[in-house]
Specification:
226 residues; mainly alpha; Helix Hairpins; two-stranded antiparallel ribbon; 3 helices
Length: 226
């Protein structure tokens, strides 16, 4: 671990002590932030898991329906039936701040939660299409809101995971590098100042002894003049 190179003075000691107090407060705040990020991340991951299971299960059913429809219908009929959408919708994007992370929020401009019959999701008539195609298209239409929420949850989980990793590196840098360096610098300066203090005390004692010796010598000379 690299040492902090500073002059062993009381002013530098005071500066290092202030930096150490600031580093300790920052370390505590970052640990609290990391813990709260982990809590938010786990909640989103659980929601993401639930949505993924729902979406993947429904997509299997949709794929099975399209496969059956393709088996009983001609490719030209399928292409004609699915050429144009029944309705269109714009997607608005807003952002929500989660522990300094701006995660996206997706919202369809058209309400997709409202229920409706099968005719609301089909853009063709029933004359030349199979029931399997009708059911698959209708189920896929109902699945779209969950797919949007799944995309939102996965993006939020990805962004929170990156922020957690960044916060973890900062916590480790403070805990294992900066704070020990500051503590070592404070110890080094304190030892040097104590050493200087002891040296000054020793010199003062020697000067005092010399002055006392001179006083005794002066008294002896006064008491026994030659």
């Amino acid at each position: 671990m690299a040492e902090i190179k500073v002059n062993p003075t009381r002013m530098e000691l005071k500066k290092l002590q202030l930096r150490l107090n600031t580093a300790r407060r920052g370390h505590k705040l970052l640990k609290d932030k990391r813990d709260e990020l982990m809590k938010q991340f786990l909640d989103i991951v659980r929601e993401n898991k639930r949505l993924r299971e729902t979406v993947e299960g429904s997509l299997v059913s949709v794929h099975r329906g399209f496969s059956t429809a393709a088996a009983v219908s001609s490719p030209e009929m399928l292409e004609t039936a699915l050429m144009l959408p029944k309705k269109e919708s714009d997607l608005s994007v807003s952002y929500k701040n989660l522990m300094s992370v701006n995660v996206p929020r997706f919202k369809p401009m058209q309400d997709m939660e409202a229920g409706g019959g099968i005719l609301d999701s089909l853009n063709y008539g029933f004359a030349f299409t199979s029931g399997e195609l009708d059911s698959a298209v209708s189920e896929l239409s109902r699945l779209l809101p969950d797919m949007i929420r799944l995309a939102e949850a996965e993006k939020a989980a990805q962004m929170l995971a990156a922020e957690i990793e960044k916060t973890r590196r900062r916590v480790n840098a403070l805990e294992y590098i900066m704070i020990p360096q500051l503590q070592e610098g404070i110890r080094s300066i304190t030892m040097k100042l104590d050493e200087n203090e002891r040296g000054n005390t020793t010199r003062l004692m020697k000067v005092k002894d010399m002055m006392i010796e001179k006083q005794f010598a002066a008294k002896r000379q006064t008491a026994h003049p030659q």
